[in-house]
Amino acid sequence: MQLRQPVGVDLRQVSDGENHFCVLCPVRLLDLADAGVVADHPVRTDLHLVKTGDTYSVVGEVRLRARLDCSRCLRPFEEELSWTLEVVFQRAGKGQSVQGQGSFEEDLERIAHDATHIDLTERVREALLLALPIKPLCGPECAGLCPVCGQDLNVGRCSCHTSPTDPRCAGLRDLSHLAAEHTHSNPTT
Ligand SMILES: [Zn+2]
Ligand SMILES: [Zn+2]
After folding, report:
1. Rounded to an integer, what distance in angstroms lies between the CA atom of residue 109 and that of residue 87?
2. Percentage helix, strand, coil for the chain under 3-state DSSP, each rounded to 5
3. pLDDT at 153
4. What protein residues have CB closer than 5 angstroms to ion ligand 1?
5. What is the rounded average pLDDT of the residues 100-112?
6. Rounded CA gap, 180 and 30, in Å?
7. Nearest-ligand number for the alpha carbon of 157
8. Are 65 and 30 in contact (CB under 8 A)?
9. How far apart are CA 138 and CA 109, in angstroms?
10. pLDDT of 170 strictly over 80
11. Cα–ligand 1 centroid distance for 140 (angstroms)
12. Is the pLDDT of residue 169 over 60?
């Protein structure tokens, strides 16, 4: 049963008011391989939980040092993914059925009146997917690969690097041109 919720909280350890929990979970238990999330480190979730009567308000900071592939140069690199999840769990009244367990889209989840655990696995999984960059970059200045020979331009230039058609380089040239113009027309000097 515990295996079904790698990221969960034992409600019997929760007291009224504020609570803090830190849950570590191996990334393989979150079924994220299909999304390209690979990591040597566990997923860390810092949970801030406030209990008010039968309501548990959870704010969690999800962090994972993941291995991604750069979308420009294709080299693997590590990046810290982080996302904040927020969800409120509410106990159903006695004899009341817990309907809508599947209403996952909402930030409110009902749990059984005698539930001993809350399961945050799906929430954490979703948070990591949201934290994943659409175009991962090993660095903002990554030079990428030569479109002709495939040489990694971060490592060194290749002999075919003469084409002026790279739009990123064109943009940079425009900017330097503007900057030069600005300096020349500055009347204060
Ligand atoms: Zn790169
Ligand atoms: Zn080349």
Report:
1. 7
2. 20, 35, 45
3. 94
4. 70, 72-73, 138, 142
5. 71
6. 52
7. 2
8. no
9. 38
10. no
11. 8
12. no
